[in-house]
Each structure stands twice: as structure tokens, then as C-alpha cells.
Specification:
Layout (H helix, E strand, L loop, with lengths): L10 H8 L8 H8 L4 H9 L6 H11 L3 H15 L3 H27 L5 H7 L3 H9 L8 H8 L3 H14 L2 E4 L2 E4 L13 H18 L15 H23 L17
Antiparallel strand pairs: 1-2
Length: 267
Amino acid sequence: MNKSIFEYKKYKKYLKNALGAGRRTGLKMALAKHIRCQTTYISQVLNKSAHFNLEQAYLVCEFLQLSDLETEYFLLLIQKERASHKQLIDYLNKKIELILNQHLDIKKRVISTRELSEEDKTVYYSHWLYLAVHIAVGIQDYNTKAKLTAYLSVDTAKLNQVLDFLLKVGLIEQVKGEYRMGPCHMHLESSSHLIQHHHLNWRLKALTAVEKKQNSNMHYSMVCSLAKKDVGKIKDQFIKIIKENNMIIGESKEEVLFCNVIDFFEV
């Protein structure tokens, strides 16, 4: 498992770990193709005195799907390695320390915060992806950036934005390159103004699921007329089913990500 980039002071050591040094992973060849150079040049950078230029370094960050803060840190490490002027090296060291302190501040804030603020909840319920990623990291097969990108079919830049937010507020944690559930809680009162956003997010997602026509999915729509006295009975049935399903889900192993949307309303 890859360590966090913030555990490294030398970018080459981080890259060797990220590319699986000593193992034939094929990542070195894929990286060379991404930054448009020969694999021999990658080897020279990793094992000799050669360095990436800043454009290549940025493409490396893109290839490794680093967040904005991770990218800034990686670029500073490279600039420091390329620098020879003492005052410039001292300046870069200060910038590096600032980034590390910012990273540590986020971790401290995560530990001390157990419930999200209203402002953070507004961000969380602004798009379905925040909740999807939050829950998906609990599935072992989807707890890295690369796996989440493929599984959820999302843009890397958007995923990085979501991961950065979830890490910042403590809903998820990152340990040795893998994500997992964090210490913070997410609870939305039924009276909250955000509940409408939550329902809309997942009903819009349900529409896209209908178009996929997957055999594992189930979609049912019916319009009917019935006696007023029976409306309450059907609502009670739905509530019973929801409770029974929650008991099953609570004891179920995390393997796949599903959405359950139930609507029963007067037209």
C-alpha cells in the first residue's frame, strides 16, 4: 500500500513507492506515456541525478491523481531538488513546512470535529457524488482514487475536489494511500432545508440508472386510485420494509454501492 506523499521529504522516494519499485507493475511505462517521454528517462530520474521539469512534474501529479494540496507539495519537493541557491532552498523549505502544517491542521480539525457545520452540510448535499464517495470508501474494492474513478465513472478533477472536502471535514480518512470512513457523523433532520437537495440528487441519479438497463437494478412505477383509509396502511407497509431492509444492510458485508429510492405521493 502506498504511503501518503506528506510522509516524504524526497519526491524520488515517494515516486518509487507509488510506482511499485522492485515490482513489474507496468506503471513506469504508463507514466512515461502520460508525460510523453521514454521509460529510460523515468529510470534516470528515479535512480540518477536527472529531474523532471515543472511541466512533467505536473503531469506526474495528474497521472497519480493527486489532490491540489498534494500536487502543490510534490511540485515544491521537485523545485527544492532542482535548486542550487541556498536562499531559494531556504524559501522552498518554508513553503514545504507551510504545506505540511496545513495538512496537519486538517488532520487535527478532523479529530476534534464530530459533526458537520451547516455550511459543510450544504456542500455535502450539493451533489450526489459526495455521499456516494463517502459510502463507497467503506468497500475494500473501491477505496483508492483509481478504483473510485473507474467505479463511479467520474472526472478525476471532480473526484479530487470531493475527496479533499470529505478529508477536510473528517467524513473519510486516508491511510497509506487508501481511504476509509472517518470519525465525523452525518445526520440530516427531516425538517432541514437540505433534505430537498438530498432527495433530488438521488432521484436524478435514479433516472440515469433507468437508462443503463442493468439486470441487477429494479425500477417500478405505478399510478393507482385507492380509498383514503388505505393510504396509511400502504405507508406503514413501506416503513416496515425500510426497517427490515436496514437490519439486513446493517449486518451485510460492504461489497457494492446501491441506492434505495421510495416515492409514494398523491398526484
